Description:
Elements: H1 2-11, H2 23-39, H3 44-51, E1 56-59, E2 65-68, E3 84-99, E4 104-121, E5 124-147, E6 150-173, E7 176-190, E8 198-216, E9 219-232, E10 242-253
Antiparallel strand pairs: 1-2, 3-4, 3-10, 4-5, 5-6, 6-7, 7-8, 8-9, 9-10
Amino acid sequence: MRWAIAWLLVAAPAWAQPGSTDALAECKARRHAIAEQASKAATADARAALSATMPECHQREDGAVEVIEPPAPERPDTSPFAPHVELAGELGLAMSTMIDNSGNAAGLGSFFEIEGGYWLRRHVSAAVFASYTSLHDSEYTALFPTGPGRLSEGIYDLQDRVYDFGVRVDWRYRGASAGAGLGTELEQGKAYAMYSSYTFAYAAGNVSAALPLFKLRRTAVELRATGTFSVPHVGTAPGGRELASGRLAIAVRY
Length: 254
């Protein structure tokens, strides 16, 4: 109802032609009426909405009066909405890094994610997801103790597979979205021949943002960027070991 009142105030034509002797007084009277109405509003948001409808009143040096109307307020989306399930898949690339007390590894690899979500409200959705990321660094340099007070440097071919499982909440507006999530990350790999394969578990967090590319009926295609950071669960990975990645993908939602 408030937006409708604001729209009528904005859309109302000037009460006198710009440049007439009464135009400035009438413009100021409109401002005063809006200010008085805003002072009686129940909430700060309602006061701000009404104040934004005030016209600007200017009298030039030649005596002409100019009344500048504010832009029309954006109409709320009143289209029908019902909570519903959504499925999505992403395919792209990930720049990942692994940091621990022995050395650092980094590499560009593939990224894939599947997601099942539920739109709770018009602008809010929640989802569970599972993803796969590859990390390959053929020049992983690490230091290892070889005796009392002695360290030896080696270069190894590190090949990791990283799996993410978690939940995410997104805020959506006009096809764009921003969100954050929490979950678990599993790292599986082998750094060099003398060591057996390993599996480490991490607590992971992520933030993401997406921009719409196009939509075809109920299928939407978007460009999505995601950043992740994870630290090991107690006792499940070497101390100081951390994983981070930046991911860019094309997402298809249905």
